[in-house]
Design goal:
The chain has about 130 residues and is mainly β. The chain has three helices and eight strands.
């Protein structure tokens, strides 16, 4: 399994002056001779995300206690009250906050899942809350 970076911790870095580094899991080594798909390969076969699909609250790794809410007007709010704006162009979701811009690639996993390709090559899954 590839390293999954906590999506919301990365987003919090946009709006918080001081935050802890995102939690990561230790990747397991693939079986000998087995190559894991890259984030690009994982996202390539997935359905495109629309702004309408993105609107709502999303959690990470099955946790709906710490969410990010995307509003239809292009604003977002983190669970800690931090706010900013978001735009979606193709498969590129960009969030802008007090500390700048942060972009990820997104695709629809299913009606309740958002697949996220991180800038560092990591891959994550968020769920609708």
């Amino acid at each position: 399994m590839r390293t999954i970076i906590t999506f919301f911790a990365a987003l919090a870095a946009l709006t918080l002056a001081a935050c802890s580094p995102p939690a990561a899991t230790t990747p397991e080594a693939p079986a000998q001779g087995v190559e894991l798909p890259t984030p690009e390969e994982q996202l390539a076969g997935s359905e495109a995300v629309t702004a309408e699909f993105l609107v709502g609250s999303w959690g990470d790794n099955g946790d709906c206690n710490s969410t990010i809410t995307y509003n239809a007007d292009g604003a977002f709010r983190m669970a800690d009250g931090s706010t900013g704006t978001w735009t979606l162009e193709g498969d590129r979701l960009t969030m802008s906050g007090a500390n700048g811009d942060f972009g990820v690639r997104v695709a629809k996993g299913n009606d309740h899942q958002l697949l996220i390709g991180q800038p560092d090559g990591g891959f994550g899954i968020s769920q609708r809350c």
